[in-house]
Amino acid sequence: MRALLRRLWFYLIAAYAAITLNFFIPRMVPGSALQNFLAKMNTASLTPAQLQALQAQYGGGHQGLVAQYLTYLGNLFQGDLGVSTSLSAPVSTVLANDLPWTIGLVGSATVIAFLVGTLIGVLAGWRRSGLLDALLPAATFFQAVPYFILASLLMLSFGFYGGMFPTGGAYDTGRYATVTPGWNWPFIANVIDHGALPAATVALASIAGWILGMRNMMITTMDEDYVLVAAAKGLPRHKVVAVAARNALLPSISNFALSISLVVTGSIVTEIVFNYAGVGREIFNAAQAADYPVMQGILLVVTFTVLGANLLADLVYVALDPRARKVA
Amino acid sequence: MSPVLRPRQPRRSGGGRTRLLRSPKVAVGSLILLFFVLLALFGPMVAPHSTDWRASRLDNVPHPPSGRFWLGTDVQQHDLFSQLLAGGRDTLLIAFVAGIIATVLSVLVGVSAGYLGGRADEVLSILTNIFLALPGLLILMVVMKMMPDGDTGNPLLIGAVIALSAWAWGARVLRAQTLALRNQDYVESARVVGEGRVRIILFEILPNLLPILASSFIFTVIYGIGAYASLSWLGLINPTNASWGTMLNTAQQFSATTSGTWWWYGPPALCVAFVGIALALLNFGIDEIVNPRMRSTRRGLGRGRGPRFQLGLTPVVRAEEGIRR
Questions:
Q1: Where are the alpha helices (DSSP H) in A127-176?
Q2: On the CB side of B126, how many CA atoms lie within 13 Å of its CA?
Q3: Which region among A163-177, A199-213, B23-37, B115-129 has the lowest average model confidence (pLDDT)?
Q4: How many CB atoms lie within 10 A of CB A110?
Q5: Which residue in A208, A265, A293, A310 could disulfide with A82, CB within 3.0 to 4.6 Å?
Q6: Which residues of B touch A13 (CB under 8 A)?
Q7: What are phi and psi of B16, to 5 degrees?
Q8: Of A127, A160, A303, which has the smallest distance from its Cβ to B310's Cβ?
Q9: CB neighbours (10 Å) of residue A173?
Q10: Which DSSP state fits A213?
């Protein structure tokens, strides 16, 4: 229990650090963020109340720094992330609509990458043939290319020229759309159809980590005595491999925990390419409109999501590893 | 837990350096990289036109590659070949600046955390883990958007900001490796002889960290290229800085991808991809040498020659084989 409490303590510190960083970013950039904002803003006029709200958020009003910070913390605890300047709606409402799409995309892509990558990694570590080993540099290719290029590549080849999948959006919209959002089968099928390419992008980019980690751990684990014992007892071959794979899986999971923030930011970029209805499209639009409250709200919410995913990975690790369970 | 590498043992056949040069992955990777470094150095000089030169102000149809314009023109009749030649400089410069700064930071934090231990380790590790969890690219987007336009064109500043979001991964790996090295006999004896802390870190521990350092540097440069290309593709970098990313940004604005003007978005995207691949190949080659698990063939056990059950061989089996022959 103590180890788990220590981890929770870490997450509290990390969350607090993220909140504080979010407060200081607009105050640390060269020049005044408020002035930059006013210079880049698209709307013609501001009401005095809006100006006051912006001053509270970016400094430049009459309040001191400490007072600003306390106001910011107070607002945050009430779930108040400010008001979007381009959509004139509370940021929390805007994000509540976007976040499920992003989490769904990252989640399903991660599950696919985990299943396929681990399987390939086990095979590559088990029979170290030339063919599977030749696959490794190919997998790192997807890791080395930026997400937005990989996404555009898939969009062009399978979507635009191939015509197999839709090239944008999260589901059919517009006048000729035949689906109505909700829990009905045609809509779900439509969402899966639209999500296939974005999810494939994220999965392809993160799969190399799973393959490589699993392969390397398998090679070490296959040399352990307990695997030899399992083989000596006459277990069928695939069961022996399963014994080794179960133990090789653990470092793979903690390695993945390290890369969650990369996967999430990558999928946000992917959403921008596919114009997908998630956080990514929102932050792109917000950047175009210089909508600082939305950008900062997204930054905070995404950081919290990453921390939550890390916590989840910790829990999975504890559940899978008896030693960790004993310590925890 | 990241795999902890054992310090390199002296080997029979050649040192690591000769093997590094013999690896085809490293050879191909360095050749491609060399090409792009030369392009970054001399590209802007040999470009036939300046990046904002326009062939005509009346024509607004992008022209496919021709004898006059090797890579065609965009909607505004810019010469895309000149832009491509000039676009590599900033991208590579920023990525390398980011790589250097991030590597220095990761050594400072990671090695001190691993060597000092105790309370210092705890604080530095928490710091590292927090930076690992922060979504770097999003922070960069917000920071770049809030900066005045003039500052988003400064390569050193951008490189430094990218480095701030990229050092944590290396620091973590270096800390783990330093922990493993700290209690080695030779470090212990250096301590007994009375070498100072700084000297031990600089001359006993750091040389053994070099392969990891190289690999984390390359990793950061890959990240830096991706980050800078993404930021300028999103239009968050001052557009007067011609780079592959800004070319992709204008292509995106005029929806070049869906109008079939492949010569507009294809070449810059390929350049970014190839630099990434070259660096990844180099990294792969280094990994194969420092990490014995990565090597593809097992020594002493040729394919098809070993026992049919291809598990790891224990020394017992190997000894028997030896006797039989």
A1: 130-144, 147-154
A2: 18
A3: A163-177
A4: 22
A5: A293
A6: 126, 130
A7: -65, -30
A8: A127
A9: 11
A10: H
Q: Which two tokens mark B323?
A: 């006797």
Helix (H/G/I), strand (E/B), else coil: B78: strand
> For residue B144, what is the nearest residue in chain A, using CA coordinates?
A29
- Asked if B137 lies within 8 A of A265 by C-beta distance, the reply is yes
Calculate how close chain B gets to A33, using CA atoms only, in Å.
6
Largest CA distance in chain B: 86
- Digit-coded pLDDT (tens) for A124-167: 877 766 677 777 777 777 878 888 888 888 888 887 777 777 77
Length, in residues, of chain A: 328
pLDDT in tens, B193-240: 888 888 888 888 888 888 888 888 988 998 899 888 888 888 887 777
Q: How remote is the C-alpha of A295 from its chain's centroid?
A: 16
* Spatial contact of A282 and A275, defined as CB atoms under 8 Å apart: no
Residue range A248-269, pLDDT digits in tens: 888 888 778 778 888 888 888 8
Cα(A88)–Cα(A100) distance, rounded to whole angstroms?
21
Q: Give, as one character, the DSSP assignment of residue A90.
A: B
Q: How many CA atoms lie within 13 A of A324 on its CB side?
A: 16
CA nearest A119: which of A229, A296, A252?
A252
Q: Give me the count of residues in chain B.
A: 325
Q: For B113-120, which contacts have Cβ atoms below 8 Å and span 24 or more sequence positions?
A: B113/B171, B113/B175, B113/B178, B114/B174, B114/B175, B114/B176, B114/B177, B114/B178, B114/B179, B114/B181, B114/B182, B115/B178, B115/B182, B115/B197, B115/B200, B115/B201, B115/B205, B117/B182
B52: part of which helix (H) or strand (E)? none
- Is the Cβ pair A29, B147 closer than 8 Å? yes
Which residues neighbour A178 within 8 Å (Cβ) at sequence distance 6 or greater? Answer: A172, A186
**Residue A68 C-beta-side C-alpha neighbours within 13 Å:** 20
**Cα–Cα distance measured from residue B1 to residue B185, given in angstroms and rounded to the nearest whole number:** 24
3-state helix/strand/coil string of A33-51: HHHHHHHHCCCCCCCHHHH
Which of B32, B33, B145, B308 best probes binding to A when mutated, by most A CB atoms within 10 angstroms? B145
- This complex has an ipTM of 0.82
Look up residue A305 and give its amino acid. T
- Distance (Å, whole) CA A318 – CA A322: 7
* pTM given for the model: 0.81
Residue of B nearest to A235 (CA): B309
SS3 content of chain B, % helix, strand, coil (to 5): 70, 0, 30
Which residues 120-179 of chain A have a CB within 8 Å of chain B? 126-130, 133, 136-137, 140-141, 143-149, 152-153, 155-156, 160, 167
How many angstroms separate the CA atoms of B198 and B310, rounded?
48
Per-residue pLDDT band at B102 (split at 50, 70, 90): very high
- Inspect the interface and report whether the beta carbons of A265 and B135 lie closer than 8 Å: yes
∠ CA B56-B59-B64 to the nearest 5 degrees? 95
**Average confidence (pLDDT) over A198-216:** 85
Q: Hey, what are A212's tokens? A: 């490589």
pLDDT at B315: 37
Closest CB to A30: pick one of B151, B172, B280: B151
Measured CA to CA, the distance from residue B17 to residue B25 in angstroms comes to 14
Other Cβ atoms less than 10 A from the Cβ of B200: the count is 17
